[in-house]
Amino acid sequence: MKRISELMSGILFTLLAVSLSVSGQNPNLQITTTSSSEYSKSPKTSIYPAFVDNIIYQSWTEAGPSPFFQLTAQGGTPPYTWSIASGNLPKGLRLDKTGKIQGMASKEGNYAFTAQVTDSKGASITKPLVFEAAPYRSKWFSDAKFGLFIQWGVFTQPSLKGKDGIAQFEKRITKFNADEWAQNVIDLGGKVLTVTINAGDGVRLWPSTTPSKLELKTQRNLVKELIDACHKKGIKFVAYFAPDKAWNKDVVDTGLDGTYGTLNLGLIKELVLMGVDGLWIDMTSATELYNFDYNWFPWNKMIPIMRANNPKLIFANNTGIYNGGTVLQYPNTDVIIYEGGTSQFETALEVAKPTTVKKKLAIEVDNLLDNTWSWREDPKLRNPKPLDMMIRNIKKNWEAGATYILSYPVPANGDILPEIYRDELKQIASFVKKNQGWSETPRASLSDTIDYDKAQKLTLTASARSKIYYTVDGNRPTTASKLYKTPIPVSKTCRIQAISVEAGKPASKVFDQTFTVLTNSNRTAANARSAAPAATLATKEAAGKTEPNGFYRGMRITVGPTPIRLTDIGRKYLQGNKDRHSIVIRRFTDDQPILTASLNTAILPIADDGYQYAPIPPTVLEAGKAYLIGISENATDQFAPDDLKNAPSFADYRIVQYSILSAQGTRKPIVDDKTGQLLGLKYEKVNVSGAKINLALGKQAFLRANNEAALGPASQIYFAENAVDGDFNTMAAAGGQYPWTLFLDLTKVETGLKQAKITFAQTAYSTEFQVMASPDNKTWTTLMEKKNNSDRTIDIKFDPIDARYFKIRSFKPEKQGETGRGMGIMEFELYR
């Protein structure tokens, strides 16, 4: 019986082998790749999730990124050929025959598909898999709308140092409770909590296992307590991390090798594995902006650690005060930061701007409730800002689409709701809760990254419970705008802005995209439109130059006394160019983005002046305002470089100088080689009926010391142009000296002038000043002198004069603390 059984088994095995061979199967061939959903357990084999964020898909390991994910198999006889037997990958992604998944995911979801691999002998096998296409990484942060940034640690006054100080810190923690902290975030209307868990004193608030020279760490795992408490209540936790450990210069912790970098690499990995949802990296990592050692926080090693160990972790790279909106470590960064200052005045509260970068990012603004980041023992030094000021600032930032992070310090004992801030926090919470959440931002059926050759219809979608309102005229949409009911016809290049409003929720963030349509008819129209009425662009040939950094090259202009409506922007034609280039217009004084569009050198005709003109949505540039207009350049197309020192003159706008913006359309970081390019502008004047012409609008203004030395703008934002831009919300003020002079050049002698007007700021004005005029910058006539001034509006009338130059010279206040605080000019006006 045993022998018969063995024979039967052999026959069955032979039949099975024949069956497998006939059907093309190989029992040794198997697909080793696993689904995206298993990533946390098997990161080495699982499909790296995609993110619907407008950039090319990348998969990450700690060695770095790849622009694809490689499906893997084993057994059989390589090489392998891959295909999809059934199901689908996320829209925008594709699988090639070598097993690489690549492309750009454009629709969220978990996509089930069956992968098939065939070896060189024809044997094949299949495996069902799931590929996750997740929302952009920082969508949860963007949706949060409001959160808290708590400043607390060993540095909290009375500040401590060294290991003994850490022990004292832990002993004095009598009111810290992680669950109460998380609940407090909820009670205040927040969805995210950021805490200083590794500040610049070098002390990490958890029992770190990364070795260091001084081992500055707590025994209690405060970080894990906070992570667990936040997650239990549905709150996200972001860890503040300072790469520099030398706030206390006499107690500086480093890795065992004496470097910050080695220590930071270990600490970041610990935090990622511990479960933080995000990292807020302080400004000593921003080596593109500051003279810090890159190796303190080596991004080329840090980013792979973050991305490989938690694909959904977000990080924000702080650019510091006055650099808000600068995009660093692009395209890997997930949050753009605006950080407010420590002054008690409203000017210290940052207001974010909408971003123009293509990657979907969150915008974060961090503003202080008090005038200090760290707790101060002396109650006289603690002074929360007025409630109306804070509410006003929150509204402005929400209008820009930013998530507002309110920052305040807590005392050494860990009391999350200090008495001195309690009333303000509760009132802010009341406002936040009434306005919490966003309606869903509309989505578009068309792409703004391609040029269409015929008319299109744009479909907008949002939540089924919402109504969509839109504009096509450049105005911000409101519930009074046109209600979306049917697809919007797009027959020419146009800018469409839209919001959605769900019942019981505030309006969504603004959808704002420019769609380019270049049919044969409007290409001809673009070529035929008349150029600027009083100017002809230079057509001489110039040696072309490429831009490997992707910088925007262009010009800074100031509009004259009459608004203009731009219809086309031109780039000088150079033979061989064939790429599509982005166009950006930003207001100079406040960096507000006005328009993004594009110019395709491959298809646009060449006008008589040698320029290729791209039609743009008609865009009004305001009288007196300064603007940056740039076109993104690249390493393949050439542009005509120009320092614009000898720029042509135009009747309705003045070219001030060259302009360079980063590849993300921001002013920093760039290499300032003083090279822009002369762009062609086609426009029409905007009639302003009945308005009295202010001859100072848009003219050349300068900040000077009273000895005529050049000065810079106070706080790097109060430019001279602000005094002649027609906007009473902007201010000119010189930095470095209290007495100073505003110098104005009208560019030509204006006749019959007989009236001037100065508007000082309410909290910054001159108590003793002089106003002078001159036709030649040599012979000066004094129009007014005033002492003991307390007026904010100064009207000056005089007999008619002919003049080109004016000076408003302040003599007092002369120092800090004096009445007036220093001259700030909101507006200087001149009339006949």
From TrEMBL:
Q: Which residues form the signal peptide?
A: 1-24
The EC number of this protein is: 3.2.1.51
Q: Which GO terms describe its biological process?
A: fucose metabolic process; glycoside catabolic process
Highest classification ranks of the organism = Bacteria, Pseudomonadati, Bacteroidota, Cytophagia, Cytophagales
- Please tell me the species this chain comes from: Dyadobacter jiangsuensis
Q: What's a single GO CC term here?
A: lysosome
One MF term from GO for this chain? alpha-L-fucosidase activity
- Protein name, please? alpha-L-fucosidase
Where's the F5/8 type C domain?
719-812
Please state which protein family the record places this protein in: Belongs to the glycosyl hydrolase 29 family.
Give the keywords, sorted.
Glycosidase, Hydrolase, Signal
